[in-house]
Design brief:
Bound molecules: S-adenosylmethionine
Strand content: 15-25%
CATH topology of one domain: Rossmann fold
Radius of gyration: 19 Å
Largest sheet: 8 strands, mixed
Shape: globular
Structural class: alpha/beta
Number of helices: 9
CATH class of one domain: Alpha Beta
Distance between the termini: 25 Å
CATH architecture of one domain: 3-Layer(aba) Sandwich
Helix content: 25-40%
Length: 253
């Protein structure tokens, strides 16, 4: 079993690099409400709550929102903006939740299963704290990674084409069953080639944290070669199609 990956090191830049475009975060919150048929008095748990990218827009739609994370620095960023939101924060490993059994009407997990050391234990804990009949709402950003620059980088650096945070296989592999249709919203963002290169050089994404210098250098060289071959303007915004999806899961019986 591996160690969980804490995001303490990313706290200062997380919101600037992972935030939704203006207006989209409310749509993301509505996607969760719709997927989970969440009632206004629902008690929600989010594992890996981070800086509240999901919790801040979603918590006003429910009665109680408990957030768990191992990274204090991430939750401190959220704490600074928590005023008026029904959010309670607990520093804990999702594999050992200090929470009563059957306490929650739904749970939320976004970009977290690829980071936990023991996914089986986390899923057992989620099943334990959900009340009978309650569901897990699994959310993820989709498609952004498929752009041409990222593809060049991934191939040369030897990174899996499918972003790890999709974690699509984890839930079925542990006996959880998809329940209902994936709720999906789409939107576009822009990023310049220079911003992409800078993000890689600064190892902004957790997929870069464990990379060797040689892997990173090979990936960067491939992206730079592509930029030169295509005569791309480093500062020209590149439009990228992406989106956000929510899939609801039932725990194993
Ligand atoms: C990529 S961030 C996602 C944050 C938030 N869900 C979002 O979508 O913006 C993943 C978070 O999960 C946390 N995390 C990693 N392993 C964890 C674990 N075993 N238990 C609780 N939190 C964990 C990290 O510290 C980080 O804050």
């Amino acid at each position: 079993m591996t160690q969980s990956v804490s995001f303490d090191r990313a706290a200062d830049y997380y919101d600037a690099t992972r935030g939704f475009p203006p207006g989209i975060e409310q749509k993301v919150a509505q996607a969760f409400v719709r997927a989970g048929s969440l009632a206004p008095d629902a008690r929600l748990l989010e594992i890996g709550i981070g800086t509240g990218r999901i919790a801040l827009p979603l918590s006003p739609h429910v009665g109680e929102y408990v957030g768990v994370d191992i990274a204090i620095a991430m939750m401190d960023k959220l704490r600074a903006r928590i005023d008026g939101h029904p959010i309670r924060l607990i520093q804990a490993d999702a594999a050992h939740l200090p929470l009563a059994s059957g306490a929650f009407d739904a749970a939320v997990a976004v970009h977290v299963f690829h980071l936990v050391g023991d996914a089986a234990a986390v899923l057992r804990e989620l099943a334990r704290v959900l009340r009978p009949g309650a569901r897990l709402l699994h959310g993820w950003n989709s498609e952004f990674e498929a752009d041409a620059l990222r593809q060049r980088f991934n191939q040369a650096a030897g990174v899996d084409e499918q972003p790890a945070y999709y974690s699509r296989g984890v839930l079925p592999a542990h006996g959880w069953t998809a329940d209902g249709e994936e709720v999906r919203l789409t939107y576009t963002t822009e990023r310049t080639a220079r911003q992409f290169l800078d993000a890689l050089r600064n190892r902004i994404w957790s997929s870069c944290w464990k990379m060797t210098e040689a892997q990173l250098a090979a990936g960067l060289a491939a992206v730079e070669a592509h930029i030169a071959a295509e005569k791309l303007d480093l500062d020209q915004p590149i439009r990228r199609h992406g989106g956000f999806s929510v899939q609801t899961y039932r725990p194993p019986v």
